[in-house]
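queue> pop job 88
queue> type: inverse folding (structure -> sequence)
queue> payload:
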C-alpha cells in the first residue's frame, strides 16, 4: 500500500481496519468473498448476510467450546475459516489449529492451495481482500502461506493444519482448535483426546452426522454435560432453501445420504456398513435372555492393551443358534480386574461362587491371537494372593479379517444369532461397524474403521471363526488365571 495516500483516504482505511479488527462478522460481510461452485449466477460472491451465520460468529467470539451439527453446504467451514483468518490478521501472538482426516482436506498446496481445503479457503478469502487490509503500510503482504501453515508477520499469529495421522495437536498449545467433519475422522475419540490436551477451551467440533460411534454424537447425546455449546444448523435455516430445493436434492441421494447430508439424523446416516444383514427385529430378542444351565456356555474376549477389553457371554442351543446373554467392556484395567468382573457377572445370574468357578472352568473360552502376549504376563500381575481358576483360551491364528467378517455375515443371514436387548453395546457395535468412506458413501478401504465398535465385533468374530470355522484349522490355546 502506498505511503503517499491522501490524508482523508488513509483515515478512512484506518477506520475500516479498526472496525474489522473489532468485529469479525463485519469483516466478513464487508470484505470477504467465498466460492459457491453450485451458483448459476455468481460463483465468487461477497459473504452473505444470513441471520444464522451472524449467530455463529457470536458464538465463535465467545471463545467457548462449540459442538456444531449441520446439513451440508451451510457455509460453516467457510465461516469458521474466515473467523480464524480474522484472528490471525488482527490478534497478536495467537495459535490456531485446524484438523482434517486427510492432508488434501487440510491444505492441498500451501501458496498454491485450492478452496477444496481448509487453509485453501482462507487463502482464497485473503487474496480477495482489499489492499489496505491485506498489506502493511510498506506494501508487504501480511500473510505467508506455507504447506500446512499460515503466519502473519505483523501479529506473530499462526494458523496451522494437521491430519489425524499426526497425533493432531499433541505437544502444542492452541487458542482454538477446529476439527472439521469430525464424524468422518477414524478413531475420532483419540483425536479429540489429543486435541483437548492442546486446547483447554475453545474447541470447535463441526460435522454432518455419520452414525453414533464418533465424537460428534457422543458430545451431544452420550455426554450432554461435556460443557460444549450445542449448535444445530439445518438446511431450513438457509434463507435460499425451501421444500422444492430439498426434494430436488433428495431425488439423487440414498436414504443414508439424505439422513447424513440434509436431515441431521444419526440412526441411518452411517455409510460403509459392514453388516447390512443385521436386523434388529430378527437378531434381538423381545425380552432379556437369561442364563440356561442346560445349555453350553462360552465367553469370547477381545484383549485390549491400549484399547478397551470386550467380553461376550454366550450360550448355544441344540440347533446351534448363538445366544448372546451378557456383555462387558472397559479400558485401562489389568487382567485381574477383568477376571474378577467375569466372576461377578456370572455370579449375578444366581450362581454360587463354587458354581461360578465350576462353570467357568468347564466351559469354552475364545480370544483374539493378540491377547496371547498379555496372557503370558498374567501370572505376574495376579501373584499368589488370590485363588485362581484356570481358563483355557482358544484362539485361531492366521485367519484373515475378511474371512472372519464373512463368517459373521453367514451367521446373520442364516438367522443363527439372537441377542439379549440388554446387550446394547454389542447391538450398537453390529449396527455401526463400518469401512472408511468418502462423503458420497464410496468405500475407500476394505479394512474396518477402528473405533469403539471394533472390540465387541472382534470378540464375536473370534467366537464365530472358532466355533464355525471356514475349514479345518489348527487351534492354539493359552491359559489365563481367574
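queue> result:
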Amino acid at each position: 500500500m502506498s505511503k503517499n495516500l491522501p490524508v482523508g483516504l488513509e483515515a478512512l482505511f484506518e477506520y475500516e481496519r479498526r472496525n474489522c479488527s473489532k468485529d469479525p462478522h463485519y469483516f466478513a460481510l464487508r470484505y470477504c468473498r467465498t466460492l459457491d461452485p453450485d451458483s448459476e449466477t455468481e460463483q465468487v460472491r461477497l459473504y452473505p448476510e444470513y441471520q444464522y451465520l451472524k449467530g455463529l460468529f457470536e458464538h465463535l467470539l465467545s471463545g467457548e467450546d462449540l459442538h456444531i451439527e449441520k446439513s451440508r453446504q451451510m457455509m460453516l467451514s467457510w465461516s469458521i475459516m474466515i473467523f480464524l483468518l480474522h484472528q490471525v490478521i488482527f490478534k497478536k501472538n495467537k495459535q490456531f489449529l485446524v484438523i482434517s482426516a486427510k492432508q488434501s482436506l487440510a491444505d492441498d498446496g500451501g501458496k498454491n492451495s485450492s478452496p477444496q481445503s481448509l487453509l485453501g479457503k482462507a487463502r482464497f478469502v485473503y487474496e480477495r481482500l482489499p489492499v489496505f487490509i491485506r498489506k502493511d503500510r510498506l506494501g508487504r503482504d501480511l500473510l505467508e502461506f506455507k504447506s500446512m501453515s499460515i503466519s502473519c508477520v505483523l501479529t506473530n499469529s499462526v494458523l496451522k493444519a494437521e491430519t489425524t495421522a499426526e497425533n493432531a495437536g499433541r505437544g502444542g498449545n492452541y487458542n482454538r482448535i477446529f476439527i472439521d467433519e469430525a464424524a468422518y475422522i477414524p478413531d475420532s475419540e483419540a483425536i479429540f483426546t489429543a486435541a483437548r490436551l492442546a486446547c483447554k477451551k475453545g474447541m470447535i467440533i463441526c460435522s454432518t452426522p455419520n452414525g453414533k460411534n464418533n465424537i460428534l454424537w457422543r458430545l451431544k447425546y452420550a455426554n450432554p454435560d461435556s460443557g460444549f455449546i450445542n449448535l444445530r444448523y439445518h438446511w431450513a435455516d438457509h434463507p435460499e432453501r425451501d421444500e422444492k430445493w430439498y426434494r430436488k436434492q433428495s431425488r439423487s441421494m440414498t436414504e443414508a445420504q439424505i439422513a447424513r447430508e440434509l436431515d441431521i439424523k444419526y440412526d441411518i446416516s452411517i455409510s460403509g456398513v459392514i453388516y447390512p444383514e443385521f436386523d434388529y427385529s430378527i437378531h434381538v430378542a423381545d425380552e432379556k435372555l437369561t442364563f440356561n444351565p442346560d445349555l453350553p456356555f462360552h465367553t469370547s474376549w477381545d484383549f485390549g492393551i491400549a484399547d478397551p477389553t470386550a467380553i461376550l457371554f454366550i450360550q448355544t442351543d441344540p440347533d446351534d443358534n448363538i445366544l448372546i446373554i451378557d456383555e462387558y467392556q472397559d479400558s485401562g484395567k489389568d487382567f485381574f480386574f477383568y477376571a474378577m468382573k467375569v466372576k461377578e457377572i456370572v455370579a449375578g445370574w444366581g450362581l454360587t461362587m463354587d458354581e461360578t468357578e465350576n462353570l467357568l472352568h468347564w466351559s469354552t473360552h475364545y480370544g483374539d491371537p493378540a491377547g496371547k502376549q498379555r496372557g503370558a504376563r498374567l501370572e505376574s500381575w495376579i501373584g499368589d494372593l488370590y485363588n485362581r481358576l484356570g481358563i483355557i483360551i482358544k484362539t485361531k491364528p492366521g485367519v484373515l479379517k475378511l474371512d472372519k467378517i464373512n463368517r459373521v455375515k453367514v451367521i446373520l443371514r442364516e438367522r443363527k444369532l439372537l441377542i439379549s436387548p440388554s446387550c446394547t453395546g454389542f447391538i450398537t457395535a453390529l449396527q455401526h461397524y463400518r469401512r472408511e468412506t468418502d462423503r458420497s458413501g464410496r468405500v475407500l478401504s476394505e479394512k474396518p474403521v477402528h473405533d469403539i465398535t471394533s472390540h465387541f465385533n472382534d470378540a464375536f468374530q473370534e467366537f464365530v471363526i472358532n466355533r464355525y470355522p471356514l475349514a479345518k484349522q489348527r487351534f492354539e490355546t493359552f491359559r489365563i488365571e481367574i
